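Quiz preparation item.
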């Protein structure tokens, strides 16, 4: 985090500030001396730099792990540079093989269009939409055609492509690599040519693709872009990167109460990395807060600040305040003001079956495990009898700290 590299020459206050902002939380900034020269040129000419981030709409929603690079875009946007939010509607048809050990099945055009509809709306919760250039890479990729694709492919060698870590591992393991997968880094790199990008952002897993963009810009006679990679954010478990498939994520469209409570569930150690990557507080503020915690202040105070900031960003300050109060109520054994109502039939109904049918447990066996662990309450009373059957009526059913449902059970 925050690599410290000797610049070797004097910088203006504005360039130094821009460099510090660029490096905050970054994994790598390459090449740093070229980025400094770009910043100096922008300062002397008043011409903003073009900063690109591409996201493939492979799912309908963005989680806060995606906002690590969006936050960096917003910081650079606030310095006056032109940010380009690129929706990879063409590259999604290929499927990004980054970090994968098998061929990734491409999505259909219909799936891509559905997912893309929500991407920019959600990204606008971080970026300033009035100062954001929105592009779709089908604009220049579709017109290439077969002839253009062959000419593009001639500008990169198979040997260079096989330097990519995931391709090398799959080849050595005798696993399938389809020819179309080689097209993905080429097309992502061509995006940088089409947009005349000065800087491209991405996660650490995108480094190879970003470097392809530099190479292709040189092939097309352009000044090559710099690349800035950001760490992949660990999810709620503090181990795996945030992912919907790992169920350790916070979706930016989740309800404020859920979002607030999920942030509070992370470990005290992980909290500080989240502060660096997700908070808009200055590093000085964060360091002062950490010093207070190290001196004895309750770390939960800091975590509440982080939870309220994140919740307010994607909802409102009022929603964040309400979410905090809701969390306090729950921690005291209270019931949230708004909980989903579920209509069920079949009374008398066994408690494990009720949990499954109400969507509070994935299966009756999971329901029984939750009961064994003391994690199920009916009308605030802990359920200890797996043989409990509920008669017709209305019940507030709670699983763990965050799952509630008002179950109206009929005969």
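Solution:
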């Amino acid at each position: 985090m925050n690599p410290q590299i000797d610049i070797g020459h004097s910088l203006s206050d504005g360039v130094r500030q821009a460099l510090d902002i660029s490096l905050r939380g970054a994994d790598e900034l390459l090449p740093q001396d070229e980025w400094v020269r770009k910043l100096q040129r922008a300062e002397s000419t008043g011409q903003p730099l073009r900063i690109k981030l591409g996201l493939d709409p492979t799912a309908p929603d963005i989680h806060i792990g995606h906002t690590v690079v969006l936050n960096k875009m917003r910081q650079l946007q606030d310095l006056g540079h032109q940010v380009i939010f690129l929706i990879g509607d063409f590259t999604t048809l290929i499927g990004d093989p980054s970090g994968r050990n098998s061929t990734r099945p491409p999505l259909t055009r219909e799936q891509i269009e559905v997912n893309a509809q929500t991407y920019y709306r959600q990204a606008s919760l971080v970026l300033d939409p009035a100062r954001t250039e929105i592009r779709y890479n089908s604009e220049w990729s579709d017109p290439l055609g077969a002839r253009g694709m062959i000419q593009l492919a001639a500008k990169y060698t198979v040997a260079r492509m096989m330097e990519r870590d995931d391709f090398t591992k799959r080849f050595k393991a005798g696993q399938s690599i389809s020819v179309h997968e080689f097209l993905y880094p080429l097309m992502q790199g061509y995006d940088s040519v089409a947009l005349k990008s000065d800087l491209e952002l991405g996660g650490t897993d995108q480094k190879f693709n970003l470097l392809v963009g530099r190479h292709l810009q040189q092939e097309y006679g352009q000044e090559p872009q710099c690349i800035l990679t950001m760490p992949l954010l660990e999810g709620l478990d503090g181990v795996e990167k945030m992912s919907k498939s790992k169920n350790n994520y916070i979706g930016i469209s989740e309800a404020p109460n859920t979002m607030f409570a999920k942030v509070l569930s992370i470990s005290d150690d992980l909290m500080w990395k989240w502060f660096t990557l997700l908070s808009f507080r200055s590093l000085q503020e964060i360091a002062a807060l950490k010093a207070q915690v190290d001196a004895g202040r309750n770390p939960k105070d800091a975590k509440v600040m982080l939870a309220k900031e994140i919740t307010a960003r994607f909802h409102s300050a009022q929603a964040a305040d309400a979410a905090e109060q809701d969390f306090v109520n729950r921690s005291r054994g209270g019931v949230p003001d708004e909980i989903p109502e579920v209509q069920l039939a079949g009374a008398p109904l066994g408690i494990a079956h009720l949990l499954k049918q109400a969507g509070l447990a994935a299966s009756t066996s999971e329901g029984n495990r939750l009961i064994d662990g003391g994690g199920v309450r009916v009308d605030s009373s802990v359920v200890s009898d797996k043989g409990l059957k509920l008669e017709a009526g209305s019940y507030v059913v709670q699983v763990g700290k965050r799952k509630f449902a008002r179950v109206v059970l009929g005969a």
